[in-house]
Structures are given as structure tokens and as C-alpha cells.
Amino acid sequence: MQYPQLHLSAPEIAHHRELTEAFANKALAATRNHRHDRAYLRGQGYKLTQDKNGSQTYQRTCPTSSFEEYFMTGICDTTIDEMSYGIYTETTHDLRTLFALTFKNDFMDAAILQTCETQTEEDPVHWFGIKYARLYLHASIFQPRDTVYSELSGTRVDEAGYRTIFQVRRTIETPLFPAFPHVVRFDHQMGWVFSELPDRRIQFTIIGHLDPHGNMPAWVFNKMTPKKHAASCTMFSELVRLRRLVEAPSKDTLWVVDGSPRRCTMCPKNTKHWKYCRCCGQVTCRKCLLTISQPLKVTWSKADPARHISHPMDKAVYCKACFKAPPNSGMSEHTQSKHSSITSNDFDTALTVSSSQGSFRDSALHSTASEGPATQVMVTRAKSLQDVNEVPQATLVGAFNPAVQESLAYQRLLVEQMQRSLVVQQNITNSQ
């Protein structure tokens, strides 16, 4: 859904920035004090409640709420530069992608409502503005929650030259963006601090407080919050790889699903249950694939806010070779050394070429919405093998002439448009 842009006045922006920056300084100071004094948290009233997955969670009572404050810290195997790329969002689609990766099935929607400051050459992480988020907190048995918040991110450098990046969020109240009737608005003040260590790894710190409001019991929330954050912390090391993977361009190929057994290009297994990797376009079996939910690039400008719940998602399939590719490498090129070459039989299945002029003959496009957003488009074989036999073999397994390449590009464009149209129609139907 396309949300209206906010236009807060300069005094309002200055007020929210001052409060958000104050909390950022508080989070940075708490992180620094804990690194130099392990007894600091105990002196602040925190108690260790969980030590799991390489992270420790401390909680303390909040003087103004029954929902506790928490402080979580741990180590992740990534660099400060990679984390800077992973958490920075400049567009609404970037924000939706990041939230979908971090919150997974609990993510519903997000948007940038107003941008006030952006990155600079000196600080590539710097950003300040107003954002919106809607998600489930812990369980879908409770009503969905949303919030309008100010966000400030930036970089600090200590005396030794080590960098620390931070991102803090603070709920704001504005009559320009009222609450939806079917969603509970929650309040939160949270900060993420990533400090560079001498071995170039990162120590992360999550500090803050969240009041979900509504009918969520405090004891349930206080017990589930550290567990949920501990689980999400395990993906910090993989965040950059996941984001680069979903933001990489799709392989320029023609997708074919005919139900016949195929050999996985990652392992020697032959199976009928195979998928195409969206990044490199190779056939992948169930054991060698990775399914990632990601937001579709569609806009529901006419959607009814009272009925709109979540942004339409797509479940994309990737092979493990593309996921393990170095973050700065071209993933498609990297995986070519790990994949076997495509045989002439693959081209016989994928293409139906009509004549030496290089145009497609009557290939029927059949689409199905049985898998929801992961709509597959199937291309049938030629009506007759004579269609393929009329084309020189070099045209099938070698380089295509320009006319065939142009025809392929046009067919791919039609398929992509059909997929997007089917997904949007199905989600609109489901929302009704």
C-alpha cells in the first residue's frame, strides 16, 4: 500500500530529532560502559535472564510500565562495513526488504513517511526521518501492531580508530497519521549499536523498551521478547548476504516447469521436486535451495486502509551456492563454477523456436495461482518436434542470433508482467 507522505513542520522535526539523538547518546553510553565494566548493568538494576545463541539478555523493571526494559549483547561474524550496508534503508522497498528479512513471518508492512537527512561521504550510514512499521509481536493470535517512529542512524569513531554504528527508533505521535481501526498502535524506544572489535568482528547491543498496548499480557511479552530477539540476533552475520541476494537482479532466463525429473546442479541428485534459483537460474533440489520471503514491488494506491493488512510477499528460491558467494562478487558468475553446464535437452525443454527467422511459434503460457505469491509460469513444449528440427543445432546450444534474443526478451517481459498481475489480483481477493 502507498502511504501518504508526512510533512511535519521544522519545529516538530527539530523536537523529534533532539529526543531521538538524546536516546542515541544514552544507548551509546550504556554500550560503552558495559564493555569497560561488566558490573555496570547490575548496578543499573538489570538481571541476566537468558544466555543463548552467543548472546546475553538482561532485563529490568520499567518505572512507568509493566513491560520490562531489556539490554542484549553478543558477537557476530561480520564487518562494520557489511553491517552498514545491511541496516541502511533509503527507500520504502529497502525498508520492507530489511524488515522481511529480520522479522520474517511477523512482518506485515513498512514505509518511509518523511526523509529529513541522508547519508554523506563522511558518514554513509547517516539518516534521519520518520518511518512506519506494522508487524505481529510474538504471535499472530494477538492483533497486529503498528507504530510511527523517528529513526536516527550514524557512525562514531573512538580514540583508537574503531567505528561504531548505531540506529535508534522512537515512537512519535502525530495527528497526520492516525491509527488504523484494525491495528493496535504500540510505543517503543529501541537502539541497535554495532561496535567494531580489534579482530574486525562486531559486538552488537540492543537496548530499549516496548509497550505493545492492547490485550497482550505483560508476563507473556516479558518472557517471549528475549527469546525472539535472541533468535533474530543469529541472523546478523547473514543479513548482508541475504540482502545482497534478494536485491540481486533475477537471472535473465525463461522459467520452465514440466514435471519431469531433473538433475540438481548443486548435487548429483535426480528429482521431480526441483526449482530454479532466481539468482543464477540453475536447477536446484529441495536440499540445496533456500526460500526467502521478500516484498513485491507493487503499489496499492487505491487499497482501502480499513481492510489492508499486509504488503504482498513473494517466496523466492535461491541455491546455496549463490548464498555462500562472497558479498562483493557477482553471484551469477561465482556460481557458474559450481554448477554443471546446461545440456541441449534443457534447451529442448525450455525453448520452442519456430523457424530460422528466430521467432517463437505458438507456445502456450499457462499460469497457476495454487502456490499463492510464488506463482509459477509454465511454458509448454512445441506442438511438434518438427519445430525444433527446423532450427540449426547451433541455434539451440550456442549463441542466439539477435532476432531470437529480442524475442526471448519480449517473452520474458510478458511472463514477469503476468506473474505480478496474478499475485496482486490474488492478494486483493484474499484481503476481501
From TrEMBL:
Which domain of life does the protein's organism represent? Eukaryota
Recorded hits in PANTHER family, A to Z, give:
FYVE-FINGER-CONTAINING RAB5 EFFECTOR PROTEIN RABENOSYN-5-RELATED, RABENOSYN-5
Q: What is this protein called?
A: START domain-containing protein
